[in-house]
Amino acid sequence: MKDIIHKIKNIDWQSITETMHENGYAIIPNLLSEEECEIMKSDYDQSTFYRKTVVMARHRFGLGEYKYFNYPLPAIIQTIRTTIYPYLAPIANAWFKALHIDTQFPSDHQEFLDQCYLNGQQKATVLILKYGKGGFNTLHQDLYGDIYFPIQIVVMLSEPDKDFMGGEFVLTQQIPRAQSKAIVLKPKKGDVLIFTTQFKPGKGTKGYYRVNMKHGVSEVKEGNRYALGIIFHDAAS
């Protein structure tokens, strides 16, 4: 885990922060190695790792499947989650301050999870997603309870245009009194995509306003697409 921690600490977080403020998303390239991605994929069928499996079509979420991990999380996932969070908390705090939302997030992830726990949100939200041919994910937001962290990450475990075709990551921005804007991203295997869970501030002539955002996955044309979703708050159910 020391290698992962070292990589995270040596990221240009000032640049990431500026990109997040501007766009509501940013990409960290090559955080995980090919081998680390393959290990996570190979564990997909190990039922002891997971607390719940969701078949998306049953809930009209899309076409595919995802599994929520149990606590304790695998060591590599726990390391990524706890090490990245302190770099994202100042971004989240700046957003809430700009929008006059009376919430500030602690710099320590466990302290934030303690707040979730006291609110009855005690179940892990980290998940692994699998899409086959025809798979997709409808536009949504991952909130899970009254207490939520406004930024989350996806780690791509498959290589676009090699392991699968299509399956782009889609973000939409809804600016007040304007049409929605679609953003299409293609993170590579081992890349980390950081993005807003619900909204980001936009700067207007009269101050900051809320830009609401949702995310999803476009249709997979061929192959299998695996990704790891790391959400920093816990769920009530």
Automatic annotation (TrEMBL):
Q: Which SUPFAM superfamilies match?
A: Clavaminate synthase-like
Looking up Pfam families in the UniProt record yields: Oxygenase-NA
Q: So which domain of life are we looking at?
A: Bacteria
Protein name according to UniProt: Prolyl 4-hydroxylase alpha subunit domain-containing protein
Instruction: Tell me what organism the protein belongs to.
Output: Chryseobacterium aquifrigidense
